Amino acid sequence: MSYHELTIRTQSRTELIDITSQLARLVQQSKVLSALLFLFVPHTTAAVTINENADPSVQHDILSELNRLIPLAGPYQHAEGNAAAHVKSTLVGPSQTLFIDEGRLALGTWQGVFFCEFDGPRSRKVWVKIIPTPNHP
Amino acid sequence: MSYHELTIRTQSRTELIDITSQLARLVQQSKVLSALLFLFVPHTTAAVTINENADPSVQHDILSELNRLIPLAGPYQHAEGNAAAHVKSTLVGPSQTLFIDEGRLALGTWQGVFFCEFDGPRSRKVWVKIIPTPNHP
Amino acid sequence: MSYHELTIRTQSRTELIDITSQLARLVQQSKVLSALLFLFVPHTTAAVTINENADPSVQHDILSELNRLIPLAGPYQHAEGNAAAHVKSTLVGPSQTLFIDEGRLALGTWQGVFFCEFDGPRSRKVWVKIIPTPNHP
């Protein structure tokens, strides 16, 4: 397989799970110095985002605002009861691209990477691909 | 031109169009084994997303929730009557990155790639770039 | 450093700032012909989007709809008063990927690239990485 696969066990219906340290470990193992790291979530009721991982209330507010904007129950046609999760997945998005610099994941001071569960609890996957790039910009 | 250009004819004001098989054909023709596929929509009232392509009601619910959240008519300044389409374009986004593995588009079981028309019907373009990557992750 | 860093001085609480010409200059200086340009915003209350830069009312409508959907004041737990900005950052997203073709940024006729300030005024950064790619698609 030409990419890494992380397995994530979610515990709630909607949940943000910090995967920054798992990604940092992959970066370290890859021994790249300058690179790009591509994330892809192969699910239609989940997503990946980057946001503050210092104060957990930020994660709470992101989930509660998404739940308020796109309520669990609504005039949905999709009969499986998870239409809201599909909509949230499209709004937040299944892919992100991160920079690797000097052998480390390059993030802002307050940034962490979060797997977004919108229809849990489930066992989920995140795909990761690291591509070395030139040392100049 | 250093990228492929797909042409899409949309039929409705708002519509999701499954472009997965067109992308799969480009992947096959490119004969790459491991690669990244970059999508870019060169329009400001459209977007690209990845979501379920098994039950069409999911596509219906995504569009109807977006239309409910960002109504066609509102207190908009933009005088062309398509301000809502511009807002939806920014929320869903014009670019996505997909993985190619063992010569095939790597998607989750239920995932398909959709062009999102928010101000149709129109003739639209989707740009596609495929970059070979190492066989290891 | 293996990427460029733009510095942006924002003037308002919420604001879109057109950075297209700064990116075009980086592309020109890089002397690449075919390439990908990766954007990353290292902040948790900001984002990057691509939308119309001809009529400024589009930028106004994007901001006012986001402010209507995710109000500044709400039942947020995060105590710093900028919870709404964190939610908007996740909805619009911190990364985008653009194509470079024949030595120029490849954008649709009406497209520009905008830094999205959701908790200004502040001094902000945008990271940019340009990766040469084959001349064929």
Describe this structure in words.
- The structure is a homotrimer of 137-residue chains.
- With 137 residues, the first copy, chain A, is an alpha+beta fold.
- Chain A contains three helices and eight strands.
- Chain A has helices spanning 20-30, 56-69, 83-92; strands at residues 4-9, 15-18, 35-40, 46-52, 95-101, 104-106, 111-117, 123-132.
- In chain A, the strands form two sheets. Chain A has a five-stranded antiparallel beta sheet with strand order 1-8-3-5-6. In chain A, strands 2-7-4 form a three-stranded antiparallel beta sheet.
- In chain A, strand 5 (95-101) and strand 6 form a beta hairpin.
- The two termini of chain A are 29 Å apart.
